[in-house]
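Propose amino acids for all 165 sites.
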């Protein structure tokens, strides 16, 4: 199955694509009456599409959106969210890591996004206040999708972990 998702900025806002143009390369505007023209003077706004992420990038983005939120942040999906804020203030122990793994699994598997067998979440302590959660998805891709994130137990900050070669 090919996955598609809207593209979001790093801040979580929907990203807009390049403005639409007509055959002559002129920018197209839409006014409050729904009329399309090349004249911005009528209170028109540029017409832009929302670009899509496809396949692996879309899968990573869905995972990112799910684990960076807490239930009930999503109005239409009040049970979806990583709820990692529940770990703030906890000691960096095996039990805390296992609780984080369970929270992340629940958020990613919500409503059958992927199969349980395709998901592996592993917690690795980095220092006394940081856990690395290594998320790996082995589904319909030639290479497993890896998404490692760091979670700070003191501040509740979740950040992507970059492997530098």
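Proposal:
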């Amino acid at each position: 199955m090919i996955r598609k998702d809207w593209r979001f900025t790093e801040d979580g806002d929907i990203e807009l694509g390049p403005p639409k143009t007509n055959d002559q390369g002129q920018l197209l505007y839409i006014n409050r009456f729904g009329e399309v023209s090349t004249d911005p003077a009528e209170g028109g706004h540029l017409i832009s599409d929302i670009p899509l992420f496809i396949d692996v990038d879309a899968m990573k983005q869905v995972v990112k959106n799910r684990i960076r939120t807490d239930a009930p942040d999503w109005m239409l999906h009040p049970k979806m969210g990583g709820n990692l804020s529940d770990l703030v203030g906890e000691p960096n122990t095996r039990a805390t890591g296992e609780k984080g793994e369970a929270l992340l699994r629940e958020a990613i598997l919500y409503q059958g996004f992927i199969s349980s067998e395709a998901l592996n979440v592993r917690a690795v302590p980095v220092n006394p206040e940081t856990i690395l959660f290594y998320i790996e998805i082995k589904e319909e891709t030639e290479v497993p999708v890896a998404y490692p994130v760091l979670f700070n137990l003191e501040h509740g900050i979740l950040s992507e972990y970059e492997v530098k070669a």
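The beta strands are 4-6, 29-30, 36-37, 45-46, 52-54, 119-127, 130-137, 145-152, 158-160. The mean pLDDT is 85.
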